[in-house]
Design goal:
alpha/beta, 7 strands, 23% helix
């Protein structure tokens, strides 16, 4: 039997956007970061997958296993959506995971893809030309330290503390009503949201 990547229907602010998620609870990078004073120390995914979203863990772990090794072109999913997310839950596992993401975007040129990652070293070591429909969003791990878009990325996602006076352009918005992260021509590359 051929194993297929499992596509998630997201909820909450991500309602209407499909995603390929992986398992944060077994990702070595995520495990190391969980006990830090970065945004990873407040990880919504770890909390959800250990409580009311436990049922998602087998599917996300399935994706982690498949995405961490190169997938044959014919086995890559066909995405029938205008906007799609990588890592609504999860983080890049290794360079094969990133190569698979690039290949999925190439196979689906009709769709705008956005990838959130803190693993700039994996992105920067990639030597192929990236497809125009893949938006790389650097997920700034530092809270209340807003930065501009780093080298190798299209956008940056920053978190600030609740009640921060820093101007926020994401807090309280649904992704499908905004699409700043999913469109290169959105007018801004710096996204700021209050920590949940």
């Amino acid at each position: 039997m051929i194993e297929q990547i499992k596509i998630s229907k997201m909820s909450g602010k991500l309602l209407g956007i499909g995603a390929i998620n992986t398992d944060t609870t077994t990702n070595e990078f995520c495990i190391r970061q969980k006990e830090t004073d970065t945004i990873c120390g407040k990880c919504y995914s770890h909390k959800m997958l250990s409580t009311y979203r436990k049922s998602c863990v087998p599917a996300f772990q399935h994706n982690s296993r498949l995405m961490s090794e190169l997938i044959e072109w014919d086995l890559l999913p066909v995405i029938n959506q205008a906007y799609f997310r990588f890592n609504g839950h999860g983080e890049l596992i290794n360079s094969a995971h990133f190569q698979n993401i690039v290949n999925i975007a190439k196979k689906n040129p009709h769709c705008n893809f956005a990838l959130w990652t803190k693993r700039a070293s994996i992105v920067r070591q990639f030597k192929e030309e990236l497809p125009d429909n893949l938006i790389l969003v650097f997920s700034n791990p530092r809270i209340d330290k807003v930065i501009d878009t780093p080298r190798g990325f299209d956008k940056v996602f920053n978190n600030v503390s609740k009640g921060s006076t820093i101007n926020q352009n994401c807090t309280g918005r649904k992704c499908m009503d905004c699409l700043i992260c999913y469109r290169k021509d959105s007018g801004t590359n710096v996204i700021i949201e209050a920590v949940k």
